Amino acid sequence: QHQAVAILAQGLISIAHLLTLSCGSLLSTFLKMVERLTYRRHCPYNTKSNKLKVFRTPGNRLTSLVKKKLPKKPRCGDSGRVLNGIPATRPAEAGRVPKSHRSVSRAYGGCLSGKSVRDRIVRAFLIEEQKCVKQVLAEKMSAAKEPKSKKGKKH
Fold first, then answer.
1. Cα dihedral sign for 112, 108, 91, 77?
2. In 1, 35, 69, 139, which residue has its Cα 20 to 30 A from 109's Cα atom?
């Protein structure tokens, strides 16, 4: 012990190291122990919906807060693009968002992206144009066939 006091006085090793040398393994395990927390809610497992944020209070106690899941941005049903102008919310929270924030003032606003709506409109227009062209061609073909069929018939 006299040697330990002399070494300590010289400042060669710290008090904690000196105590571990003199008291043995019991004190060394006590110094290495870690504070732990238990789950305070019903589910005692580390699942995706049961994540904790551990923090220390001003009274030097460890406590925990249950983290909320991060929301994903709403996406277009056709192309899968992110819908601009609509906040990313969890499903329960989305119902509490005002209706004006849940959609965009456009046809299919809040469900489809602007590009998808534009593509649908253009596709519908082109299909209608194609029908008109087919009808015009059919009329031309029938007009071309009628005079020949009249000449061919003799009574």
1. negative
2. 69
Q: Radius of gyration over alpha carbons of the chain, in Å?
A: 39
Residue with tokens 């534009």: 118
Please calculate the CA angle 126-132-134 and round it to the nearest 5 degrees: 100
pLDDT in tens, 79-133: 999 999 999 999 899 889 999 999 999 999 999 999 999 999 999 999 999 999 9
Virtual torsion, Cα 51, 54, 57, 61, nearest 10 deg = 110
Burial 99-135 (b: 16+ CB within 10 A, else e): eeeeebeeebbebbbbebbeeeeeeeeeeeeeeeeee
Contacts of the segment 104-109: beta carbons below 8 A, 24+ positions apart = none
3-state SS class at 35: coil
Using a cut of 0.90, tell me whether the model's pTM lies above it. no
Structure tokens at 121: 């409109």
Check residue 136 and give its pLDDT. 94
User: CB of 114 within 8 A of CB of 83?
Assistant: no
Residues 65 and 71 sit within 8 Å (Cβ to Cβ): no
